[in-house]
Every structure is written in structure tokens, then in C-alpha cells.
Amino acid sequence: DTGVSQDPRHKITKRGQNVTFRCDPISEHNRLYWYRQTLGQGPEFLTYFQNEAQLEKSRLLSDRFSAERPKGSFSTLEIQRTEQGDSAMYLCASSGGNPYNSPLHFGNGTRLTVT
Amino acid sequence: AQSVTQLDSHVSVSEGTPVLLRCNYSSSYSPSLFWYVQHPNKGLQLLLKYTSAATLVKGINGFEAEFKKSETSFHLTKPSAHMSDAAEYFCVVIDNYGQNFVFGPGTRLSVLP
Prior knowledge:
The complex is a heterodimer.
Chain A: E1 5-7, E2 10-13, E3 19-24, E4 31-37, E5 44-50, E6 53-57, E7 65-68, E8 75-79, E9 88-95, E10 105-106, E11 110-114
Chain B: E1 3-5, E2 10-14, E3 19-21, E4 24-26, E5 33-38, E6 44-50, E7 56-58, E8 64-68, E9 73-78, E10 87-94, E11 101-103, E12 107-112
Parallel strand pairs in B: 2-12
Antiparallel strand pairs in B: 1-4, 3-9, 5-6, 5-10, 7-8, 8-9, 10-11, 10-12
């Protein structure tokens, strides 16, 4: 168990550019989650995968955001035409076992700064 | 829909004194509840979880939480605070589809020497 890893740790981009983040979950976990956290707030749910299927997507997620998990292993989160309001910490988490009581295991996050 | 309220945005205690971080949840069924801790510039770490077994749950680093259905509460306690406990604490409830973990706004714990 090497834990959940996210890449990059930090990303600085100019407004209007596209960015892509990667998450590698714990290998035996079939569920993968993306969250966004801004300063002083709790993590906010973005989207959820079970294996390669994206089962839920937050209504707060605009069309500029897209996530994939093509082979049910790693996942990518892309933000197109970034805006300053997208500046936040993007957290990935994975989980296995019973979906009603198994905890999330988080990576260290990708901090995005849009200038 | 499930929701979580953390009544205090900031709690300050002296080292060696008890800690109480309050959490109330809203759920239409018997929920699973978690407490996570986030140290500055670090990832979220699971402290403990409640999943309808014993109502008093013991976690890491001496923390405990008690599930009280009648009060819809899941308060986090520790008998004696340590400087290393200074961090942000999040109470979390899982939705009834097992698909979305709903986080509270967090409580920042400060420990004074």
C-alpha cells in the first residue's frame, strides 16, 4: 500500500489555459473521488468513479471540468479555460470494500493557482 | 440530503486540558460518520469512524467520539491535548448511496503552551 499519489503538487497557470491533474489511487481500491478545497473551507465533492464508470458529478461542476478514469486505475481531472475562481486545492481519494462504511484515503492534493 | 454542522469554527485549549470538538449531522437513515484531521500543508488523515457498531469509537492519537442518535451528534473528544494536535478537524457523513462523503466546514484546533 503506497497510498494515493497526486501529480503535480503545485500548478501555476494563467487565466484561460487548460490544466490536467493526475491521481493514482491505492491499487486495490475500485472507488475514486475528486474534491476541491478552498482556504478555510471543508472539501467539496466534485465527482466519483466506481472502476471506470463516472457515477456522480456535482452540479457545481461546470462544463469546463472533466474527469476520466479510462482503465479503472488512475484518473485525470482537466480544467479548460481556467478562471481565477478555480484556484484551490484539488484532492483525490480512493476507497475499497463496503461503500457505506469504508473510509476515504486521501492524497496530498494538487494546489492550483490561476493568475 | 445529508449535511454536517460543526458548531465551532475555532477552538483553543491549553496543553494538557481536554478537547471537545462538536459535530451534528442530518441524515434520513442510520449514517456512517467519520472524523478526519488535516495538519498544515498535509493531506487529510482518518482519525476514526462510526459504522453502527459500538456507539463509543476510539481512534488514533487518543481521540474518541460518541455517536448519539437522539441528539444527532458525533462529538470528538480527547482527555489531554498535545501541541501536535493543533490542526483542522472535519466531521464527515456518507450519503445513503455510499457515493458522496459530505464534509463539515471544519474546526481549527489551537493548543496553547
